[in-house]
Each structure stands twice: as structure tokens, then as C-alpha cells.
Amino acid sequence: MGLGMRIGVELVTSVLVGTGIGWALDAWLKTAPWLMVVFLLLGGAAGVLNVYRLMRGMDETVGLGQAQRRAERAGENPAKDH
């Protein structure tokens, strides 16, 4: 359930941040709505890329999963040590 929540938060946050940056730039440069649309698409692409990295295990998260992957790469198995 936590992974699903993280995926949702990654997607929604990246789209909102991209849209907010585009909106602010549009207001400042008087180019509405072009920059907001561009940054909306860039935010969506960034969100999809983050989810892809998460699902492939290429993210730099900390915690149990990352520690287990490091131990497997080093040839250790902490679960069997006990």
C-alpha cells in the first residue's frame, strides 16, 4: 500500500510543481498559457520517469529495501545470519 501511495504522490506532486512553475513564469513574462502548458508536460514526464525509476529499483531511497540490495551486491544475506 505504501508503494502505491508513493507512486500517486510522485505523479501528482510533479505535475503540480511543473504547473506552478509554468503559471508563475507566465504571470511574470506575460506569455499565458504557453509556459504553463510546457511545464505541465515536463512535470508529467518527470513524474513518469520517477515512477519508472522507482519500479526498476534505480531510485536512491534509503531504508530496508536499499540496505537489502546493497547486502545482496556485497554477497551477504542478512536474513540468513540469524
UniProtKB/TrEMBL annotation:
Q: What keywords are annotated for this sequence in UniProt?
A: Membrane, Transmembrane, Transmembrane helix
Listed Pfam families: ATPase_gene1
Residue segments, region Disordered:
63-82
| Ranges annotated as spanning the membrane | 7-25, 31-52
Against InterPro entries, the record matches this protein to: Atp1_alphaprobac, ATPase_put
Q: Where is the composition biased (Basic and acidic residues)?
A: 69-82
What name has this protein been given in UniProt? Answer: ATP synthase protein I
